Amino acid sequence: MTGARPKVVVVMPAYNAAKTLHMTYADLPHQMVDLVILVDDGSTDETTRIARELGLELFIHNRNYGYGANQKTCYREALKAGADIIVMLHPDYQYDPTLLPQIIRPIHEDKADIVLGSRLLGSDPVKQGMPWWKYISNRFLTAIENAVFGLELSEYHTGYRAFRREILEATNTPMNSDQFIFDQEVLAQAVELGARITEVPVPTRYFPQASSASFWQSAVYGLSILWLLFRYQLHRSGISRQLQFESLERRYSRPGTQTTEGRTRL
After folding, report:
1. I want to staple 194 with a disulfide (CB 3.0 to 4.6 A). Which of 64, 94, 246, 259 is the partner?
2. pLDDT digits 0-9 by tens, 42-82
3. Residue-range domain boundaries for the chain
């Protein structure tokens, strides 16, 4: 993707983000962004009104369908808009919007197909405000995911990530969950496709207005990840092939990348 500047579309899956949306949008490096799409998943605050005032491309769900369902709409509309690179950024101002150039650079330079903004690279997230139990569970789940996927990432559980359009076109996202596990299902599908996944450090903010899952929600999320990894192992071993992990198109590959086992990384 080197050469001409790619079309960059930022998607924001929003739910009751009125208090932080304006700050998130204002800090984006707008000279590098062609379009910002916000999907309001049945908010009960002023999210929709603020999005209209900011001139965002707005899509509204008639009720709260869930985080995964929100992302499905985000990615579908970004692809329809002709995006070459799709950046998913939570509008809760927890992740630094000014880091977008670093997020998209590996894709623009054809060094990666997916870039994850990691809270665990180069900083101590606990000192930044991450609850200790969330940090421990993050490290535990990341270690298991690395073992299953054959990668060496510092974390998988980030709300700041970028995709090359071909990856989203090839993954069977309609079969994914409408809930929080959607994020990990997309990554499992990408690993199976042989996508190159890398990460960049993104310091984060923790404050009352920033969205954060409760302990119970986090526990359910963690168990869902373990179930996903079990199903993926069954698929990879051939014991129980699952359509969810099959490509919608010809197996994704690029010249010069290794895809024999469905895993590549920088």
Report:
1. 259
2. 999 999 999 999 999 999 999 999 999 999 999 999 999 99
3. 8-248
